[in-house]
Specification:
Ribose 5-phosphate Isomerase B, Chain: A, five-stranded parallel β-sheet, 17% strand
Amino acid sequence: MKKIAIASDHAGFELKEDIKSLLKNYEILDLGTNSTESVDYPDFGKAAGEAISSGKADLGIVICGSGIGISIAANRNPKVRCALCTTVEMAKLSRQHNDANILALGARITDKSTAVEIVKAFLSTKFEGGRHEKRVEKLTNCG
């Protein structure tokens, strides 16, 4: 069973809880936050990145108000390829072409039903490899 790390700041807390209910076929590593009380998104993006780089999780989902800050924090880890996605097509391409290992969402940008479809697409899409492998390797080694 694949393990999914999920983390959010206060703005993403409610969407994080909604998304967790979709993950019935996965083991969930909930890295917080656990309420709508104000917290700092970099702490949660960093925690998700560490879960991926250490092998504690196979994939991750991070959520803040816009998705931008938490994705920047996650991407500070050289083993992370966090993609901020606002459409299903972006989620699919992030997996197919970039082998993204963390999905970022903006709770104030993307409505719940769209976010659910984005998560489903991200989790069900595989990396195509082939011509994309060299490019993904460059992403890994460009830091």
